[in-house]
Design brief:
44% of the residues lie in helices and 9% in strands. By secondary structure, it is of the alpha/beta class. It has a domain of 138 residues. An 8-stranded parallel β-sheet has the order 9-6-3-2-1-12-11-10. Strands 5-4-7-8 form a 4-stranded antiparallel β-sheet. Helix 18 packs across helix 19. The two termini are 17 Å apart.
Length: 646
């Protein structure tokens, strides 16, 4: 889209008071080009660059990425990926074939062509993911072999010599996490249990970085032995991390040049690799999960480790202890790589829902769990009383223990103690110059009182996912009229159905009229003509979808986010929470996305941004329509053009 279109969008966003317009998109979903595609997307590919240029032209101010840690061959979920190591599936291979590029010709073009041509046409997303894992491993092995061979030459090419210097500096700077993460792979290969250390958890190797009292010297000696015997494997691991880190740096420079902020995802879970290297930081008797809620009545047993509250601070309580030092290291790395952060499930940092580890029925166990710091006297969880920050009289026993109002009131000192880990995140962001609005809190259907008090101190808002709104409850948290200026509002996210699929469901369930009546109230302030507008929405599902988007911009929120499937009119679901399905985490933008998007626009089946912004501006009433008459006319022309009009 031309610069004039981008300027038009920017002008409309300013008129609506929207300061952040962010596209949410995870790594595997980026499109590729025919000569580079192994079956999984990468944000560092040429196909991704072209799509991000399109996002810039739509006036987006930022891109919300998912977690970018290393995933395993059997589990593609980014929320189970590593916290420090980056996902080497993201290394774009085509740039490694360019002798004039920053990495020299590490990879043969013939190898890349062979791997691309081998992508399976059948077998679905699982087959494509496994092909991508195998092919990427082969390509990166060749890149490493080439680097080692060329580095050893007395007349090594200048590109290789430069890469070798950068590699040495990278290893030295990141040694603290590179070596433990690499040794996890080394030991997994030795014991034939890649990505799973449970079979050797009770051995010395299982606790190298959390030895028992008296084992410290043996553990240190074993680490030195492994680093010596497996020096090449450790070095190769670090080399792959260098490649993906440098390509991320290229993306960040490009995005900054386009005026796009990159937002990282501070996931709440730990990968098996991180659970192994950091096991000394966790409680042994409890896991973290999601309690029952309105949108998830059964709860979810995530099996994530729980950080030990007694290690937040040093024993004297005066300085950060092992847990806060770990968080500071993690945030230091993330904030050097992103312009802002999405805090995944901030409840886990403030008032985690915990349940007993090792239960034979994890789902039943999580349903009978409790909040770690808000359980002073529960008979079924007496162990939690030592961590309680509230007294029994501060609880409302008429509420379920997972209810938002279980804790009735808190003193300022109690809020401070609940906020110890959360404050580390906010403080790290501010010290590195991030704006308050660039810390996003993924609070969905539940907002416990404890968390609300912590977030209120920093003026942070929550997520409002409007497709989940209860149209029969005026106080529902997802209704757009209840959105606060500091909130982030969206029709859906990576864990919801596409709006376009929902509109189809509403149609065959005869629910369009209820949605139309609600949207007419929001977007047509004058009573005169509102009924006709509601009938029009009810009879035109495509227009109703555009109105659903407009409802976001007409709210008080300064920050609006859209998931890529909603933007492009894709009806498929990216992830269905609580399910194990090969289709999860696999939905991709197709190679011919521009053509498909154009077709859907003409059919009214994709986000027509000028049309949406015009609807939102008109929701301001007659005065707004007069004040923005010229802008509205230009938006209407642009919207008509996208629909195929003159």
């Amino acid at each position: 889209m031309p610069d004039s279109h981008r300027s038009l969008v920017t002008e409309a966003l300013e008129a609506l008071g929207v300061t952040r317009w962010v596209l949410s998109l995870h790594d595997p979903s980026f499109p590729g080009l025919p000569g580079e595609d192994l079956g999984r997307g990468s944000p560092y590919s040429e196909g991704a660059a072209r799509f991000l240029a399109f996002a810039r032209d739509l006036g987006f101010t930022g891109i919300q990425l998912g977690p970018q840690g290393q995933t395993s061959a059997h589990n593609p979920s980014p929320y189970d990926g590593t916290l420090f190591s980056r996902n080497t599936l993201n290394v774009a291979l085509a740039p490694l074939t360019d002798p004039r590029g920053p990495w020299g010709a590490l990879l043969s073009p013939d190898t890349l062509a062979r791997l691309v041509s081998g992508m399976p046409e059948r077998g679905g997303p699982a087959a494509r993911y496994h092909h991508a894992c195998r092919s990427q491993a082969q390509a990166l092995q060749e890149a490493w072999d080439t680097f080692r061979r060329e580095r050893a030459r007395a007349d090594a090419p200048a590109s290789i010599a430069s890469l070798a210097r950068r590699f040495a500096a990278f290893r030295e700077e990141h040694r603290a996490w590179l070596e433990p993460d690499a040794l996890f792979d080394v030991l997994g290969a030795q014991k034939h249990t890649p990505d799973d250390w449970r079979d050797w958890a009770d051995s010395l190797d299982g606790r190298l970085f959390a030895p028992r009292p008296g084992e410290e010297a043996r553990a240190e000696a074993r680490i030195r032995e492994l680093l010596t015997l497996e020096a090449e494997a450790v070095e190769q691991y670090a080399f792959r991390q260098l490649l993906v880190a440098e390509q991320h740096g290229v993306l960040r420079e490009r995005a900054a040049g386009w005026g796009l902020k990159l937002y990282g995802d501070l996931q709440i879970g730990f990968s098996p690799r991180d659970a192994w290297t950091r096991q000394g930081l966790f409680l042994r008797a409890y896991f973290m999960g999601a309690p029952p809620s309105r949108t998830n009545p059964e709860g979810q047993p995530w099996n994530y480790p729980v950080l030990d509250p007694e290690q937040y601070l040093t024993p004297d309580g005066g300085t950060p202890g092992p847990v806060l030092r770990f968080m500071e290291a993690r945030l230091g790395k993330m904030l050097s790589e992103y312009d802002g952060l999405r805090i995944d499930h901030p409840h886990g940092l403030v008032c985690p829902w915990v349940y007993r580890a090792g239960a034979s029925d994890p789902l039943r166990s999580v349903q009978g769990g409790a909040r770690l710091f808000s359980s002073p006297d529960l008979p079924d969880h007496p162990e939690l009383s030592r961590y309680a920050l509230v007294a029994p009289e501060q609880l409302d026993r008429s509420q379920p223990r997972h209810g938002d109002g279980w804790v009735k009131w808190l003193t300022p000192e109690q809020v401070r103690r609940y906020a110890l880990v959360f404050d580390t995140v906010v403080r790290a962001a501010r010290e590195r110059g991030r704006a308050r609005e660039d810390v996003l809190c993924e609070v969905l259907s539940t907002l416990p009182f404890e968390l609300s008090q912590v977030m209120a101190r920093d003026g942070l808002g929550r997520f409002r996912v409007t497709q989940k709104a209860d149209l029969n409850n005026p106080a529902d948290v997802y209704r757009s009229e209840n959105v606060a200026p500091e909130d982030w509002v969206m029709v859906g996210n990576h864990d919801t159905k596409s709006l376009w699929r929902l509109v189809s469901e509403w149609q065959w369930k005869h629910a369009l009229r209820a949605q139309a009546d609600y949207l007419a109230q929001r977007l047509h302030p004058e009573a005169e003509g509102r009924e006709a507008f509601a009938r029009q929405l009810a009879h035109d599902p495509g227009l109703l979808a555009q109105a659903k988007f407009a409802d976001l911009f007409a709210s008080r929120a300064r920050s609006v986010m859209v998931f890529f499937a909603d933007l492009l009119g894709m009806p498929e679901t990216y992830n269905a929470p609580g399910t194990i399905d090969a289709r999860n985490w696999s939905l991709r933008i197709p190679q011919d996305w521009a053509h498909q998007y154009g077709q859907r626009l003409r059919a009214g089946a994709a986000l027509n941004l000028p049309q949406v912004l015009a609807l939102a501006l008109r929701a301001g009433g007659a005065e707004a329509r007069i004040r923005h008459a010229d802008l509205l006319a230009r938006l209407d022309r642009a919207a008509s053009h996208l629909r195929g009009g003159a």
